[in-house]
Amino acid sequence: MPDYTLKILAVCGSGVVSSSMVVTRLKEILADNGIKKVKTFELTPAMIKSHLERDPADLIISTTQIAETFDIPIINAVALLSGIGEDKFIEELISTINQILQEKGE
User: Which of 54, 50, 26 is nearest to 40 (CA)?
Assistant: First the structure.
């Protein structure tokens, strides 16, 4: 199990409802895959840039459109709400996290 704490931004339109649901499911998926050191932040798209300036993160998962680009991966998390394509989301999530951990030397 990696020692590095992943920082993940969960983004939705209001920064509250959908992102909370996504974070709950996200933590279950990550725990099932042996990744337990995770810190999440629930934000709106408008909050991402200022948050990253204060506290860098490793990954953004979002249930809404994000107009800006950032230096970290962004994964569409709508599948966690709808259940449609959830397996593909999980595959992309775990692959991306493994790549992040590899870059961090974990």
Answer: 26
User: Model-level pTM?
Assistant: 0.92
Which two structure tokens, joined as six digits, stand for 86? 């959830």
Between 17-32 and 86-103, two packed helices, what is the crossing angle to 10 degrees?
A: 70
Single-letter amino acid, residue 67: A
Closest alpha carbon to 9 in 52, 71, 64: 52
In this prediction, residue 77 has a pLDDT band, given cuts at 50, 70 and 90, of very high
- Least Cα distance to 90 among 14, 35, 17 occurs for 35
Contact 44, 95 (CB under 8 A): no
